[in-house]
Design brief:
415 residues, alpha+beta, five-stranded mixed beta sheet, three-stranded antiparallel beta sheet
Length: 415
Amino acid sequence: MSTMPSDRSPDSTLAFLREGYRFVSARCDRLGSDVVQTRLLLEPTICLRGRDAAELFYDEERFVRRGAAPKRGQRTLTGVGGVQGLDGPAHRARKAMFMSLMTPAAVRRLGQLFDDEWRARIPTWAEDGPVVLYDEVGRILTRAVWAWAGVPLAEADVRRRTAEMHAMIEGPAVLGPKHWRGLLARRRAERWAGELVDRVRAGTLPAPEDSALRVIAEHRDERGAPLPRRIAAVGLLNVLRPTVAVDRYVVFAALALHDHPHWRDRVRGDDAATEQFVQEVRRYYPFFPFAAARVRRSFEWRGYAFPQGRRVLLDLYGTNHHPALWPEPERFRPERFAAWRDDPFSFIPQGGGDHDTGHRCAGEWITIELMKRAVGALTGAMSYRVPPQDLALDLGRMPALPPSGMIVDGVRPVT
């Protein structure tokens, strides 16, 4: 059996926080291997990247998710007891609940709500002057997904709810006040969402039959029992929060249109070109950095030992930038998707494997729909300027975002 290439640092946690999205690839490149070992939070951790590694990682006979994600991520981003940390029958039952919400008609309905909200804001942007796109799109997504999910939302609460979602998203990979804000936002949001679940179950809050709020409140687990109140709240937030997080992808799409302006005319009114553009935005720009699992039982792969219980990280960003999979990976080239064949293990911006039974993000189709709607609005519903600002992406920051949040001004509706 071969010795796995290893990072000799006593612990690489600080380097992980400093290097962010490039952490795994930097070690893979330096050690000449797509399988390397390091130590994170003083624990031996195997890091993987590439298509074959992704196929291995999503083999449920070899890996489990229980106990894999650091607690700081569960306590801010996903929620303790969320579907991301389940395995076996419990995971399949919970995943089926989420997938039941992702019908083509439901995805289009959310896309239309988003589109309507966006277009309704354009006259206000035209009057108000410079607009921070990240802030505005976050609030648009909050209004749209709350309505779609059957969750009541007063206009006065839009900013607060959006800020809570952002705090949870930004909390896991930071230290100090931002992390504390994520913890506080998670506690407040779970309490609020739990109260909604209680009201639906008591019959005092009507919710549409096929809405996320109703489906989650009435869901029964693999044993036929209703979800505990807090777990149902976590489930509802795992619909709302990731949808609001698409605001980052929308900012990246706007940034790509700014950096590659010839694509504005190519995507306008052309669904195939828009699809290629959106997919390349998802490949090229940083979103989820890694996925975590633990070895179910000891095995050997490519001559390397994977001991039972060992934590394993799959490098999502690094796989989407692997030169063996994506020629010239650091060039933004949407046309690469014109002849691309769908492969659930080589293109993994929101995880790999099977949507219905595996740990690939249930909301991936929603993400694509919302991004396509945003590109349509940016190129067909409004004109605008991008003034001088700091648009550089720091890949050491997780999640990444241009410091300015993407400012646009001179907004005018296009009729």
